[in-house]
Structures
1.
Amino acid sequence: MRSCLYHIIVFALSVAMFSCSSSKKFTKNYYRDNQATLESIRTRYKALFDKNPFSLELKDKQLDRIGLEIHTDSVRYIYTFRTDEPYLLDTLYKYNYDVKAISELINDMQRAHCTWITHLDYYEKRRRKFLVFLSVRDKKLHAFLRPEKYFTLAFFDEVQAYDEKGRLMDNEFPEQERKINGSVFRRINDKVFFALSTKFR
Amino acid sequence: MSPVQASPGNLQRDTTHISTQEQALAFLDSLQRLDSSKHWPNVDPRLFLFNLRVFATTPLRFYEGKGTNFCAYSALTYIPLNHDPLGFARFMVTLYTKGRARMGKVMIKPSAAVRKEAGLLKYKGALDVSPAGQIWFLSLADHFKGYLNFFNRGFDKGDENTLWASTNFAKFNRMLRRLFDLKVHAKGADLIRPWVSDIYGYLTDRASKGPVFLYLNNRLLIKKRHVATRFGIPTHFVLLLDIYKSDDDKINIVYWDYGKKTLQQVDASLLRKIIFGITDYTFKES
């Protein structure tokens, strides 16, 4: 009985250790290996958003159900489409989006396993500013007996404050930690920060 | 799924007005300016007055803040902003200048911790620049308590995101009854869905008479992770403004939260699964 318990504990510890090392390795390498794709998605999304605001979600593991949120001044429309249906393109057309550019963006998001992209606002000295928030769902972040994690990225337009551990800090009060969606973000470069989160949005 | 347009919904059917936007603006104009208040040391009086003007002119932009547990207080704010904007503006100005004010049957007298915090909430989106909204939310959360607040009754920094600010269904209905002169009709509970055989029919009927508050499982309505939620619990209050079916038999719900109307298509089974509480109201005949 004691031997059985010992084996279970060793197995659980091994799983936990393997899971942690897998996450660390992933975060270290993922942005570097996919920088061009991620930056391209971010830049094109921002240009499209500035013309006509929207958010995109890839809703399932097969990445063939698309969630589209259309933001107008007073109304948010939330739609779900299958990629094999014509309604997505019809809707983009109806709301005057650049259908070709958004279709290409969706294809690239599918290839990069981006599950969510949106524009978030925040305020500094009472001035409204924006960041692009992007989540990646990758099987390397899955681990046995652990909740699924997402690699989330925050792209800022301006240089951000961070502490000696690379944690994102408040630009106005650099001694204060700054969370986004409840997660602590860490520096990739002066304008890009990441977090491993249990939520993709 | 085919695209559909949001309809104005119940906003046009909901015509009881105790005061008007114009009266609220005239009152705020008559004040010209406010002095800083010793009760709210971190609230800029000019920004406070500006916020009150925005509440009066664009009530549906009233915003609860990102990541906070203020959704219940935000949802019920529809009532004073829509039906009595002058009464709300007067209440807020009194609360600011005197540190206490009466609304309905309740004397709101916020604690020192809350008064010190108002104006300092940060990274909550537009709530950052709405000290008046912060005063209102923090004061309500400080005053009204339910069983979810049992283990965290006093405000500490960051408690706007914790159980301190949470609202269960009974507390929500109690707030409506005590703050406003309303007949409140509620169905449902915190963990048990309302016993209504045809939820779409019921909501359609209720929504045809006026706005309806829904207490729902937001994790299913707006998914934030790719897991099947087995034990759904309600976490979010919204104001249902309209509900109707489209040609493909999908149900379109138009609801108000986070300073915007949202139109979302759901199927009947999801609608049934997410709703735990339904509250509608009528004004008492005087």
2.
Amino acid sequence: MSAAAAGARQPAADGKDFLIADGLRREFGGVRACADATFGIRRGAITSLIGPNGAGKSTVVGIVGGAIAPSAGRIVFDGSDITAMPPHDRARIGLVRTYQLSSEFGRLTVLENLLVAAPSQRGERMRTLLLGKRYWRTQERELLDQARSLLDRFALSHMQDEYAGNLSGGQKRLLEIMRALMCQPKLLLLDEPMAGVNPTLARSIEGYLAGLAGEGLTMLLVEHELGLVERLSESVIVMAQGKVIATGTMPELRARPEVLHAYLVG
Amino acid sequence: MSAAFVYYTTTILVYLGVDILAVWSLNLQYGVTGIYNFAWIMFQAVGAYTAGVLTLGPDTSNGGFQQYILGVRLPEPLPVLVAGAVAGVVALVVGMVALRRLRTDYQAMVMLVISVIAVLLVENVTGLFNGPAGLSLVPQPYGSLPLSSLGYQWFYVALTAVICLVVYLFVHRVTSSPLGRALRATRDNEDAAQALGKDVVQLRLFAFVFGGVVAGISGAVLILFIGAWSPGSWAYVETLVVLTAVIVGGTGNNAGVMLGALLVPVAFNEATRFIPQFGRPGLVDALQWIVIGLLALVFLWFWPRGIIPERRRRFPAGPGRATQAAEPSEVT
């Protein structure tokens, strides 16, 4: 661990960390987007990842989600090393991410967007294709119930047959979260879920996230709004210039000069 | 009806059947899965050549005037089935190389290049499929049946219809299942599909190979009907005719693309056949190509979803949901 990250908490060796990122590094051309990022994520709580623009937050989410390969470092999830695991396999073991930009399946309906996200569907198997509907109908009904109760919970039932591409920006954010939940995540990576959302909807998204945390879902939240970060998460990781510069609770971090410096000087 | 008219009609019907197989194949790859397969025609050609050399017998027959590989005579319907299988294997090999790491726009370029290379290869390695002259005198299947010439024409129409029906059952089973839904998700947003646990490469390969098999079958049906196949039949631009049919009919909709097959390769080609020649020789043919290109552009600009757009899948709602059937009703 580098000296610059001296203020950051080392991942605990007590096994309480659900995910451990150890010395993650990644360059794009000459730019070092992520330089020796080391942190741990506790089970059953929201951990926030904050930092000024260009701090490397999205790169870290990309590396943890598997879309970006790190040039050095390793990731341990639920006790196993997943550094080399492709993104679809990570999703299958419960590591699911959302995107900063809307990434809906535009020509699928809202309901289909949710159904398609469900893991291990019998009707998706190529080998059993010839067995037809009888083989997957029961599971499809269960998934339909599951998807509809999610739509109820997020108050989007009236949009179920609408093409996802026709939703408003805020509705797309909600869909993104619902779709990730259909995937049965154990750890949810939320990359700025409130970006570009009006304050009313942002508040309701905050409520949904607090509810999910109450149910024990582990989340890593990338967010700019520090008040929200303080309300939702106990543990906060601060990044600047590709490095983790501090870890702690929000009040602790406010007292740290290096954090203030990073935010003010960028 | 005069015999000539019946002969003409039945020929058109067989062509229509072949084109319907073609658009279902390309629609699964491009319309449903979002693969820009500009090499589509090559897979039809693989099927056609395979069925040809498996029907012609040894190349010493007919005075040995054509050279080709394999050269056996398999009983019907094996040449058609093997043609589909070989096209599928070629699709698997091409797909393993082209669909793995490349972005979709680069995939399109790779496909185009592969299509051009394949034609050059077959033209220049004359021992493969008789070079630029191509295969000819391929005997028609079930030729020993006691049928008149016109009777055989109708028989072949029926045979093509049966093949179309069987292929449709398979294609529909894919597109109406959760697997089809996963393919469409891959088309709409590859990264998000991957982040939700979909093996995008495997899904793409599946659609590519499945479409390749159907393309191969379509080629086999065509060569066994017309008895000949040469590099002129499968220049890379031929893929654009099928692609235009898919775009005009409605990408992602099996019924829509059928209409596209009727309108573009069949109706348009036949209607323009009767235009009197004017200008320099070959001008009308050239104009035909231009119009097909324009047709694709106009539809992409004004009606990008085609005449019969992809269907919106609705699910039955209401109380007692668990007891409701979960099959989507397809409403336009």
3.
Amino acid sequence: MPRRKKEPVISPAMLPKVGITEVQAGGRRYLLRNDVMFTAMQHAQGEFSDFFLALRDEGKVFGHRCPQCRHLIIPPFMKRCPACNFVEMSKEYVRDLGVVAATPVITVFAPSRFKGQVPFGTGRVFLETLDGKLSDTAMLIRVRTTRGTIRPGIYKKGTPVKIAFRDERKGEIEDIFALPQSELTAEQLAKSPLFESEIEWGRLSEHEIGEATPQLQEALREVKSHFQKLAEMIPQSARATANLANWNRSVNVQTGGGNFSFAVKKGKLQVRDETAEEADLILTVKDPSILLAWLRDSTEGIGEGFESPALTDLVVEGTLVLNKPELETITRLDRVPRSLRRDHVLAR
Amino acid sequence: MREVAVLGAGMTPCRSRWMEKTFWELAQMAVSEAVRDAGVHVQEVEAGVAGIYNDIFEFQAIPESGLQGIVGLQNKPLMRVSNGGATGAYAMLAGYNMIASGQYDLMLVFGVEKALDCYDFEAESATPAVVQTIGYSWDPWFERPLGAHASESYAEVIQAYMDEYPGDLAPRARARIVELFCEHAQNNPYAQRLGEKVTAEQVLHSRYVVYPIRALETCVYTEGACALVFASGEMAQRIKERTGREPIWVTGVGAANEPYFVGNDITRYKVLHRIYSDYLATRKALEQARLTIDDIQVIELHDAFIPQAMITLAEMGVVPLGRGNDLVEEGIIMPGGKFLVNPSGGLVFGGHFVGGSNMMSTWSVMRELRGKNLEHGLVHGTGGSLSMYGAAIVLERRV
């Protein structure tokens, strides 16, 4: 999530080359002209500068309190209270503990400029005030988990949260994020500010896989054989090969029936019985047969009549857990079944 | 306040992409249809209101400027309205007030939007760029940098409502509403998804856009235009003498926008599990029309997302809050039920060209009132972060 210094604000790949494309519609020719609505900004943070400076330099969050109605708002989005005819509000620090206002939302299809961050969770948090109450407004924040990627069930309305800080803060709202208090130790909860590097991330082993049963082991064998078949089909489809092109990842798959691994490399899929020592990505799924709907659709085309089952949906539902928020391997695989159909590798 | 009537309406077909047409041409197509339908010459029109939501979609700041002469309003006032998703409804409110105040007797109210010219060259797909363009509607300090966007925002409201009323907005009830609106759209010759058949089972199997909303429960991106001709009561009578056609009357209007920031005090902040703006706007419009929701026979509501539409219907008083499933299970909006809802197919199947979608809703209610000999209809628009904007308009056919 943190952006590196000297990184361009917009990925250069998003900027089109000069050019005009000719297209046909209804037997006539039309033109599409490459262009961009371009305005660079040195965007003034104005009266909010103090708030962002406090995040950056103090590792603290403050709000504004109205001296008349006593409402405390976070973030301090205004200086005067309109309910009290604009009486001036005063700065007041809040604690880094609070609760989520409602079940947060998980995004998988993001705006252009956030594509590389999915899946991500956003929610509203009320923070504790120093007098032991809660703020009157709830602020939007990224909600994260230490245990793989964000998924349903980790947060719900009222879940107690801790606000944590990026190590390299810039003075912007992305400097902070929320974690469930239940995932932190007493020491971590007591520490203010708590920094990202002080948290243990990606502890997927704690994701309950359970004991291997003969059924799960049999399911895994079936999953692996479908994966192998898929690997053999992909080179026959130019579109499927293109789906995996320019993407190299080694992926370990941990299931209740045992483990295996696959690699995406040079537009191909390679399946192995053993797991890689240093995988780029770890997928965890309790019951490997959950993957069969997607695999059968990929290798046999059972998805006819409905939209194809999607691995992405399994991630969104939380049945397939990633060790880090990098969905691209999954979204690329999700394009493969349709490509196999379009290239007639898979009979329609 | 003077009486206000709608004399005619014009639509372009709704399409996901009009490579063949710019928004100038789309606006002119809709306006020329509307004046023909109303039986007036465009040069009789005294003023106009243009609903255009997002400058980026049109690839031009003050996009209405080019339209002035194109729609026949040279040397006359044209006001552009931009109120998020509710732009169309707010533009109609502005036109209503300009006539009700006594200043003008004959007006054009039109809405137009492009969308799919936006393109993400990195993803080689339009969708992320369209989502990003709408995402620019969030504040640049606190929420946009976190990746806030339209479906995330509506899903926040839907999740909060489901926290409050567990079990309501049941997936199967939602899916049956999708199926219903799809069937309705087949009677709308301008619908974007004409010829589609979507079943409840398909809805339940479609992919998630954001959890827990599925792809087939969301509105589409649309390019198109709709225009309406508004008139004072006196002008409406005069034009009726030459056309022989009864106008449709606007008997109530209401609007309310909730605040941007979330809290628990509904008098001061946005309460997440409510769409209070819809409640307030509908109540005001019905009060002015001296009606209750039970007097309404046809509703064209802004269904950005099907579960949001169910909450909106509850806020309108069609069912109590928490009883959204009754819309389907008690047959309230199903064929033969008490309310006819979204006979155009709504924004999910008819189309959502943002600046004019709510005008398409008006076109549809007028068509239903006339075609089915009904008396009262309700048009609704929502939009903005967390569905914070609300506008409602009561239409009447006098018998």
